[in-house]
Amino acid sequence: MAIPIPENPPAAIARIEKTQLTFIQLVWLRFKRHKMAVAGIISLILLVLFAILGTAFTTEAYSNITDTSIRLMPPSHEHPFGTDTVGRDILSRTIYGGQISLMIGLIAMAVEVVVGVLIGAIAGYYGGIIDSLLMRFTEAMFNIPQIPLLLVLGKLLADKLPPLNLFGREFSGSVIVIMVVIGLTSWMGLARIVRANFLSLKEREFVTAAHCIGTRNGPIIFGHILPNTMAPIIVSATLGVANAIISEAYVSFLGVGVRPPTATWGNMLNGAYQYIESAPWLWIFPGILIVLTVLSINFIGDGLRDALDPHSLVESK
Amino acid sequence: MGRYIIRRLLQAIPLLLIISIVIFLLLQSSGDPLATMGGRRTVRPEDRARLARQLGLDKPVYKQYIYWLAGNDWVKIDFDGDGIPETTGTRKGVLRGDFGTSLVSRGKSALSLIGERLPNTLILMIPAEIIMLIFALSIGIYSALRQYTWVDQVVTTGSFIGYSMPIFFIALASMYLFAVNFRKWGLPYLPTVGMFDPKVGKTFGQVVLHMVLPIFSMSVVSVSAYSRYVRSQMLEVNNQDYIRTAHAKGLTDRQVLIGHALKNAAIPIVTLVGIEIPFLLGGAVVTETIFGWPGMGRLFIDHLTRSDTPVVMGILMLISVAVVVCQLITDIVYAWLDPRIRYS
Amino acid sequence: MDSLLEVRNLKVQFNTLEGVVHAVNGVSFQLEKGKTMGIVGESGCGKSVTMLSVMRLIKEPPGRVTEGEVLFQEKDLLKLPKSSMHEIRGAKIAMIFQDPMTSLNPVLTIGHQISEALVVHSGIGKEEAYKKTLELLEMVGIPQANERYKDYPHQFSGGMRQRVMIAMGLSCKPDILIADEPTTALDVTIQAQIVELTKKLQAQFGMAVIWITHDLGVAAEIADRMIVMYAGYVVEEADIFQIYENTRHPYTLSLLKSLPRVDRKKHNRLANIQGSPPDCIQMPPGCPFLPRCGFGVEQCAEDNPDLTTEPDGHKVACWVDVTTGRFR
After folding, report:
1. Which among A29, A215, C39, C253 is most buried, taking Cβ atoms within 10 Å?
2. What is the pLDDT of residue B38?
3. Cβ contacts (< 8 Å) between B281 and chain A: which residues?
4. 3-state class (DSSP) for residue C108
5. Confidence at residue B248, expressed as pLDDT on a 0 to 100 scale
6. Environment class of A186 (CB within 10 Å of its CB; exposed 0-12, middle 13-18, buried 19+)
């Protein structure tokens, strides 16, 4: 039984080393598998280009010129998307409206992420009374239905801010208000997820180790635990942009969102249902743009979710 | 499990309180009820002051909240401005069902306005919910079982598209297609506005006909979203070890699905449904507006744009209460369904 | 053909994002009636996949049986239509799994889960199934069977749950019981009980057992014959005493060497096997164990040795004779 085993494996025999993929490379590989997600990125880029490059061809002032003599004209050579109820060119309005809608989407998402992560992290990390209080508050906010709440806030606050002047353009103050308001009414889901992750992550040994060497709470929260819960945050943020764009559309469509004359895809649809039969171009163009944008973002978000999930190692046919 | 129920009930109470405070604070800072009620006539300062005292607007915020919540018929208010409270208030407060008087529809209580419209919303929403559930469950389960086939791909992509659409786009598109264009093409077409055709009257057939387009529009989005969830739950359950054990025992696929998989997948699905129900009341705003359906959602937006605070607060509060109550019921049902919680 | 179950040259692979994983690479063995076969190897060596393939429980995408035959009662199980497998699983060949907490359905009573197989395979009524289930519960050592029938898996301890799994597996008196690491998730004392229980029931029912484990101590307790697997290959197969007394493969040798022993001097360091488990996606030519093998010679890098049978029935796949350290 006591057969001796030679100490070292023969060094002369070479081994094939497999190159290890970095995390980012792996995520990108997994992401690429989703053809729809990749299509989403392409179409989103195209849409953004439409909104940005369009400014080379027309100015915002032009998009706000009203001329009731040419109101409600169908698409033509001069007005490729037709004109609206007061004679404004719809194509240029969709371009500038697109910029606003996209911007609202991004910034509302930023507000949502900041608030949601902060509340979730603090509640999850500190636990106890702080957790209970924050969670009661989160639950209360969560239980108030979002759209009515948005509508109320939009009505209340949208015209409280004066118009701003940025980059030489004038924005209705309601744009800022809507951004913030949408963000402030959609953070609750993210807060819950972040809190749950923090609750489990803070028990892990790497946190204990950080405590042992005297790291303060702040760096532990942001430097140690937070990076480990980035996946759901990224996915939430991506989908949050889509939700924000839709929410803005709903609120503006009902007339209590972004106020004229600033155009957004949503408020271009306001009142369009009265002209369904006579002027379908009023709602078809902005509507399709919204759908395409949201669809692209949702595809990207879905692809990201799979790509960042360590369990999805298996290829589907 | 009894303790669990009691605990949840106790938790619900402070929750409702916090919600009521949030709603109150939001709205009491809104608009100028005096301007709303005064209409276009300029109001004399004395009248304004009298109105302020009547509505209790001269009192500090916390008192206003308490009066809103519990009424003011147990205190005396100073009506005539001489500094001495002499008249008892007339409001009973939210806790006793009095949401105040509408600032817009003179004389009518907020509650009665809501009560008029609520049944219409329910008539629309309950069948909608049932239809959506049936479709979502069937599509979700079917597509989960056919994972990796083209059916699954089509369903997944289709539900993605459906769920990314804003309701008004589908509503407008379906109106354009099924109402406007069908009529142009001489096909039987669907009505788009209101609950019934005034010329025919509020018959069962009329109402059903008018429900088709709104329910269709809502369904496209909801069925897409729900079926994705159902599908993912089914997939997750199907990957569990106990499903492998069930197969190893020699059960057929159908026996495994019905006897083992569905029972487990049902739990989170029931939870989702329970939570979604009251939110339907809120989401109806857009649908009812587009289709002119005379329900609570339309009431909300109409009175919001006219700054009718009591009605708006009433609706918000009611929906939130419905949400909390539904959540409570759902939690209890969930605890009862899952033996791990029931017998612990 | 004497043997109850014969596996010939079974090959199974999985399509993953990072490539094709060759999980099982030409496994062959025979199982005799009433005997116990132990399958030993590290995590990921393909032992579970082999037996799951026998039961045709591998999900077809992403897995695929690319080659081989599984002969049971004169039929090739791999070629049977799916509906026929339902009659074999549970009734003729039963399988129990490693983690009884996740392997039992949490929302069904254990009594129902045990009697289910009885009802489906034997066609007996619920009343009779209930009685038989009570008998089974007593047989596996669960007291107060009639009360515990209505309990749910989470109300049992780990060892009791595994007993429930065994009762479930044996309910239809199968010819073969496959046990996939049934004691790995249990305490050592409970392990011993489960092993004893299995041996007792095996003697009682006369069934053959395949016991998968990575624990050589447990294998020694229960197996008549043992297979050692590495990287999806069988590297050694022999009667149980031969494996321990007359070890012929370097991997088996290292495994045995790494067992802590009571009779060794205390301050010897525990031996381990250097290196890490092989990557089953990109398998270099030659013997998969070579990078960790102390006996390697040049031939090992070029060719993967086949499993050869020695005159005494002992099979080994190695170019080197470990007793002499020299090429065979």
Report:
1. C39
2. 57
3. 145
4. coil
5. 92
6. buried
Enumerate residues 19 to 48 of chain A having a beta carbon within 8 A of any beta carbon in chain C.
29-30, 33
- C283 three-state secondary structure: coil
User: Which stretches within chain C are classed as H helix?
Assistant: 47-54, 82-88, 100-103, 110-122, 126-139, 145-148, 158-170, 188-205, 216-222, 240-245, 250-257, 298-302
Min Cα distance A135 → chain C (Å) is 29
Q: Any CB–CB contact under 8 A between A311 and chain C?
A: no
* CA atoms of A306 and B9, how far apart (whole Å): 38
Mutation target for C interface from B148, B153, B242: give the one with most C CBs within 10 A.
B242
Among B249, B338, B339, the residue with its CB nearest the CB of C90 is: B249
pLDDT tens sequence across B137-149: 899 888 888 877 7
Domain boundaries, chain A: 28-53+89-307
Give whole-number Cα distances, B321 to A206, A274, B115, in Å. Answer: 43, 34, 15
- pLDDT number for residue C71: 92
Contact C297, C320 (CB under 8 A): yes
Cβ neighbours of residue C12 closer than 8 Å, sequence gap 6 or more: C23, C24, C46, C49, C50, C53, C58, C63, C64, C65, C66
Sort out which chain B residues have CB atoms less than 8 A from A144's CB and list them.
19, 22-23, 316, 319-320, 323
DSSP string computed for B48-84: HHHHHHHHTTTS-HHHHHHHHHH-STTSEE--SSSS-
Does the beta-carbon distance from A9 to C281 stay under 8 Å? Answer: no
What DSSP string describes B155-218?
A: HHHHHHHHHHS-HHHHHHHHIIIIIIIHHHTTS-----SSSS-TTT-S-HHHHHHHHHHHHHHH
Q: Rounded distance, CA B110 to CA B308, Å?
A: 9
- Burial category of C295 from C-beta neighbours within 10 Å (exposed 0-12, middle 13-18, buried 19 and up): buried
A110: closest CA among A39, A187, A18?
A187
Q: Please tell me which of the candidates A144, A250, A255 has its beta carbon nearest to residue B305.
A: A255
**Strand pairing report for C225-230 and C208-213:** unpaired
Is the N-terminal amide bond of C62 cis, ω within 30° of 0?
Answer: yes
Q: Does B290 touch chain A (CB under 8 A)?
A: yes
Chain B residue with Cα closest to C103: B242
Residue B216: which of B278, B176, B174 has the closest Cα?
Answer: B174
Residue C109: pLDDT band with limits 50, 70, 90: very high
Chain C CB contacts of B242 below 8 Å: 102-106
CA dist A202 and A209 (Å) reads: 11
Of B37 and B229, which is predicted with more confidence?
A: B229
CATH 1.20.1090.10 fits A28-53+89-307, yes or no: no
* pLDDT reported for residue A16: 42
Amino acid at residue number B129: E
Chain A contact present for C245, CB below 8 A:
yes
Rounded distance between C-alpha atoms, residue B163 and residue B157, angstroms: 10
Is the pLDDT score of B246 beyond 70?
yes
Q: Are C254 and C277 a contacting pair, CB within 8 Å?
A: no
The pLDDT value given to residue A315: 34
The answer to whether residues B165 and A246 touch, using CB atoms and an 8 Å cutoff, is no
List the 23-62 stretch of B: residues with Cβ below 8 A of A: 23, 26-27, 29-31
One-letter amino acid for residue B162 of the chain: G
More confident call, B270 vs C131: C131
State the 10-residue block means of pLDDT for chain A, 317 residues long.
Answer: 57 46 76 81 88 77 72 77 79 85 91 93 89 88 84 78 70 82 90 89 87 86 85 88 90 82 82 73 86 90 79 39
- For tokens 């993967």, what's the residue? C304
- Hey, which chains touch B, using 3+ CB pairs under 8 Å? A, C
Q: Is C94 on the interface with B (CB under 8 A)?
A: yes
